[in-house]
Design a protein that fits this description.
This protein is mostly helical and 754 residues long. Among the domains are: 71 residues, Orthogonal Bundle (434 Repressor (Amino-terminal Domain)), CATH 1.10.260.40; 149 residues, 3-Layer(aba) Sandwich (Rossmann fold); 78 residues; 134 residues, Serine Threonine Protein Phosphatase 5, Tetratricopeptide repeat (Alpha Horseshoe), CATH 1.25.40. 66% of the residues lie in helices and 5% in strands. The protein contains 37 helices and eight strands. The chain is elongated. The relative contact order is 0.04. The C terminus is likely disordered.
Length: 754
């Protein structure tokens, strides 16, 4: 062994490589290189030394001398050998997971002397490739056998523990063989005896259950067992676990490049990106797609993308040779209980990025406990993934395609429609209940029920389920359920005021306008045109389009004699004259809105119109009158809201914030900087307490402006933080406003929308 250590050290120094660099180049562990140079491995593996020789670039006589030292170390006992399959040559994008797996194995072995690591993930995610790669690297550190057993966990009849043990006993006893007991209990006793005083590495690939694996775990110290499975095998003790996810875009692109060549990938970067997306980063699908391209040099990447973009053909195209994506999914699907199979295929009815337990309960017509148990079963089978938020789940895109196939084949159109209608009706009903919690008017209390205990709960539900209820509104519109669409739009009005960009609000309120027209309801049409105009102005930044909507709303409401909707139309039209510089006209229109809303008994509308009148007074140069007006409005709103329970304060706090926000600006105009800064800070607190991120952003801009105008340098920090938050939310318009304010205070946008 001294000769191998001496030669290896000399060659490494001559190559100017550190032990770490040599290990990286050879694809072995650093510890292996150190142990070889330190002559601490009694029987080095020839394959390991060959990989090191390749990394050193050795050829001819120097290479032959180095490899001869492996033979000189002496023959291994008959039971020491390897049945590990070869590693895949294009191992891309799993370096972090490989390092983590090896670190887990070494750490557990150091603590207990016997390590078991389970690698789990969905079919085709690359579990076997990772485990085999790790096994080759770790085998050089472990004296004894290195054995691989395919437990065939995805087959209809997986290998039994007893059948697997027959293979292991044959491997442990070597070519000499010997008598093998007939009874399973005696074979197990012999296996435990043989593994008790030996060491080695065992790969149990493609395991189905803990029951299959548990009897095969070696008993003695010095053993490392690597298990791959679709399931996390949570019932195994003293085990580390690693779950594999899809490859990220960069790694997936690297895998395609490794298979088809860098030139073809670089020539079509957009098509390659789309190919990665359609394959969802699943290594098996990427390999299949890459092999198709590699075997067809005349195909462009774009040509293949166009062919597999069609979901009805995608899985058919991803099955050259014996590498079939659908086959692996079908085997996993076939092993599920009936309800789990129904769950997986029915998820294809709901084109959402993730699912809640409650929604799936409606989909299946079961209670939430049964729904959760079934979803967790699919997670354990790696056919579903837990989302970032607890209690929510994500379906892989290729699995969605497979689920849609099974749904069409196994369920009638009537059953599919009934399930989808049940989810839609539940979502729209919940939207109406949630929306009542966000209405700031103290006179409109939420409906009794146990769905939400607070405005915060209603807000959280609306945000979490936004993809679902938006789908439900569209479904209702397409089905001609006009009243459902109108009711949802009315319920979501105050939620839209807080969250401007969670869905396409102009489209939603446009659907509501169309539904009201189809229903022949001019009052509803007028109300929804007001909401559509708000969305066009605030969300899209198209005030000219908004004016058209508000004027039509005004005419419809006036013809119907609906003073409340007429008052809101007047309120929105105030902004037209305000932007045109017609302050007298704006004041006149605002006064009209105030009269109509007061007569209609709309407290919220009256308050909002009242503080808009204060804006006009400020713009006219009478900041003192604006302060008086706003203080009176604040007192009125506090008095109206005082009797509300604490759970209802959440809905009214943003309006308090808007009054204080305006007070801050009016105080600033008067040079009252202490009062201005305090009002802006209080407004920010109100918006936070009321769950209003839009208002919080406006408060940040207002506070920064006041600080900068007062000569306080903290304003710059507030602006920089605001820009960061706006950009994180994708709010480019307000990010631009904040940057403009950083450079100049002369063109401030001081208007607010509601």
């Amino acid at each position: 062994m001294g000769q191998l250590a001496t030669l290896l050290h000399g060659h490494r120094i001559a190559a100017r490589l550190s032990q770490e660099a040599l290990a990286e180049a050879a694809g072995v562990a650093v510890r292996t290189v150190r142990n070889l140079e330190g002559a601490r491995i009694a029987r080095p593996r020839r394959r390991t030394v060959e990989e090191i020789a390749n990394a050193l670039g050795l050829t001819g006589e120097p290479r032959a001398r180095l490899l001869q030292t492996v033979h000189a170390a002496g023959a291994a006992p008959a039971w020491q050998h390897s049945s590990l399959p070869p590693v895949v040559p294009d191992f891309v994008g799993r370096r972090a997971e490989l390092d983590q797996l090896i670190a887990q194995a070494r750490g557990l072995a150091a603590r207990s002397g016997n390590a078991t690591v389970v690698v789990s993930g969905q079919p085709g995610v690359g579990k076997t490739s990772l485990v085999v790669r790790a096994a080759h690297l770790l085998a050089a550190e472990i004296a004894g056998i290195a054995c691989h057993i395919d437990l065939r966990g995805t087959d209809l009849e997986p290998l039994s523990a007893d059948q697997a043990m027959d293979q292991l006993l044959a491997a442990l006893r070597g070519t000499g063989g010997g008598w093998t007991p007939h009874s399973p209990g005696e074979r197990l006793a012999l296996y435990r005896m043989l593994t008790a005083d030996r060491t080695g590495l065992l790969v149990l690939d493609n395991a189905a259950t803990e029951t299959q694996v548990r009897p095969l775990l070696p008993t003695g110290p010095g053993w490392l067992t690597l298990v791959s499975s679709r399931f996390n095998l949570g019932g195994l003790d003293s085990t580390c676990r690693l779950r594999l996810e899809d490859l990220d875009e960069a790694s997936a692109t690297g895998l395609i490049e490794e298979i088809v060549g860098a030139d073809r990938v670089s020539a079509e970067p957009e098509a390659t990106r789309e190919l990665v997306r359609l394959c969802t980063g699943l290594p098996l699908a990427l390999r299949v797609a890459g092999n198709r391209l590699a075997s067809r040099p005349s195909w462009s990447v774009g040509w293949l993308v166009e062919r597999i973009r069609d979901e009805s053909r995608r899985l058919d195209l991803l099955h050259p040779g014996d590498t079939r994506v659908r086959a692996g999914l079908s085997l996993s699907y076939g092993q599920l209980p009936q309800l789990a199979r129904q769950t997986l295929r029915r998820l294809a009815l709901l084109p959402w990025p993730e699912y809640s337990v409650a929604a799936v309960g409606q989909l299946l017509a079961v209670d939430v406990d049964e729904a959760e148990a079934t979803l967790e079963m699919l997670v354990d089978a790696s056919l579903l993934a837990p989302a970032a938020a607890p209690g929510r789940y994500v379906l892989h895109d290729l699995l969605r395609v497979f689920a849609a196939e099974r749904l069409a084949a196994e369920e009638s159109p009537a059953d599919r429609d009934e399930a989808a209608d049940r989810v839609r009706a539940w979502l729209l009903g919940m939207v109406e209940v949630a929306g009542r919690w966000l209405d700031p008017d103290p006179g409109r209390q939420p409906a009794a029920g146990a769905e939400f205990g607070s405005g915060q709960g209603a807000m959280a539900w609306l945000t979490a389920e936004r993809h679902g209820w938006w789908w439900a509104v569209r479904q209702a519109g397409a089905a001609g359920r006009h009243r459902d669409v109108i009711a949802a739009a009315e319920a979501l009005y105050w939620y839209s005021d807080r969250y401007h960009h969670v869905i396409d609000w102009p489209e939603l309120f446009g659907l509501a306008v169309a539904a009201a027209q189809a229903s022949g309801d001019p009052v509803a049409e007028a109300a929804q045109r007001n909401a559509l105009g708000w969305a066009q102005s605030v969300v899209l930044g198209r005030p000219a389009d908004a004016v058209t909507q508000h004027r039509r709303a005004y005419r419809l409401a006036a013809a119907a004699g609906d003073r409340r909707t007429l008052g809101w139309a007047c309120f929105y039209l105030v902004g037209v004259r305000y932007r045109d510089g017609d302050l007298a006209g704006a004041a006149e229109t605002c006064a009209r809105a105030l009269r109509e809303l007061t007569e209609a008994g709309d407290l919220t509308g009256r308050l909002i119109t009242s503080y808009s009148l204060a804006d006009i007074r400020r713009e006219q140069g009478d900041a003192a009158a604006a302060v008086t007006h706003l203080r009176r409005a604040l007192d009125d709103w506090r008095a109206a809201s005082a009797a509300q329970p604490a759970s209802r304060q959440f809905a009214s706090r943003p309006l308090t914030g808007w009054i204080r926000h305006r007070l801050g600006r009016a105080h600033a105009d008067l040079g009252q900087w202490t009062e201005a800064i305090a009002s802006m800070g209080a407004a920010a607190a109100d918006f936070t307490a009321g769950g209003d991120p839009y208002g919080s952003g406006e408060a940040a801009l207002g506070l920064a402006e006041v600080l900068l105008r007062s000569g306080d340098s903290r304003g710059r920090r507030v602006l920089l933080d605001a820009i960061r938050d706006f950009e994180a939310d994708g709010d480019r318009r307000r990010a631009a406003r904040a940057r403009k304010l950083l450079g100049s205070l002369s063109d401030l946008d001081t208007s607010n929308c509601r």
